[in-house]
């Protein structure tokens, strides 16, 4: 048996206790707890000028060896900021109007994928299994094949994948889809995403639809529940609890990203205060939204818009002894967040689109079974099909958010327990560990597909 080799753009920093927010590294780190030796290759998070190929920085922590390379500022801008996060991210979240395409960025994207392939190929051994993650690295499998790697290569996409009618707006749609022929298994979060990718392959006359399967991702609910119990007794939760004086607390936790529907969510909360005034001066909404991709223009604009919306709502509704919205844009350690989830009576999670949304699963895992809170969840989150016992809402409908919040805030204990028990069963049935095992079992059973063609 060879090693498992994981490749992703973002790699957790083994020296940092507080990791940047993001579902990919969280789920993979949980999945790797099995202790089998593994190599994790990716970007170091640093930008620097270099000539020729940079040597990977290699460090081993426990069973995982991290090998990372830096990017030049021009590569970081073209590959990461512009192509991955200014083109693929909006399009794949169904926001065609936010996509701003430049051919030069596509060339940078290919350049960095080739750089990754050369850096990784020098470390690969025959028999290794390679598992590539997310939209930054679609062509990487093909580039490894071009360098002669013949082992199994799997790919998992953590974000949604739009139908062909949208996908075809991407100028390099065809070479990206063609490069995916190099994968032995392609995993997506939901059946809807898998069907969309099959449709894209068919529209381009490409084979490979039989290699596409949904593998919904999960968390480590047992560990997270234990973290939540521990944090609940900690100082931060105590301070938060003292500050709300036994009044209801709503929590939202998201990277500061337009896909998370934060603006729409604040308007929904405002509608609650307008239409159900009995909650004024009682309820508190705590939104934790760490800044993400702050160098990308759309993210900067969103931040300003949210500052304005929150300022306006707080200005209009606050009393001298009550503030309706508390808003934090700095990261909070996940171990502390776990305690906040346990304390909160309601979680408000309303992305306009989301690959899965792990925060929804974390909220469920963090609850006290004797006094569980209620989950208000967007029906457009990848987690919604599994978490159908949540109060599902359309995140574009402020009145629907207000009604669901009111229902959540007034739900009796018996109904909260009934829903939570079913939700908790779901969260326990697909964990980060079982997700990785299921994917790798399917990859192991696949025939290595070494005859993929070179992309244009
Ligand atoms: P995405 O991957 O789009 O960021 P997810 O909800 O799937 O969305 O995953 C986000 C992950 O990041 C969760 O595991 C969550 O606990 C973590 N996270 C979110 N906000 C913070 C924060 N402020 N500090 C630390 N971790 C966070
Ligand atoms: C999502 C993506 C990940 C990404 C994370 C954080 O979860 O699927 O690939 O790592 O967001 O974004 P960032 O740009 O900071 O890596």
UniProtKB/TrEMBL annotation:
InterPro entries (alphabetical): Glyco_trans_20
A biological process from GO: trehalose biosynthetic process
Highest rank taxon of the organism: Bacteria
Signal peptide residue numbers: none
GO molecular function terms attached to this record: alpha,alpha-trehalose-phosphate synthase (UDP-forming) activity
Family the UniProt entry places it in: Belongs to the glycosyltransferase 20 family.
Protein name per its UniProtKB record: Alpha,alpha-trehalose-phosphate synthase (UDP-forming)
Species whose genome carries this gene: Acetobacter nitrogenifigens DSM 23921 = NBRC 105050
Lineage summary: Bacteria, Pseudomonadati, Pseudomonadota, Alphaproteobacteria, Acetobacterales
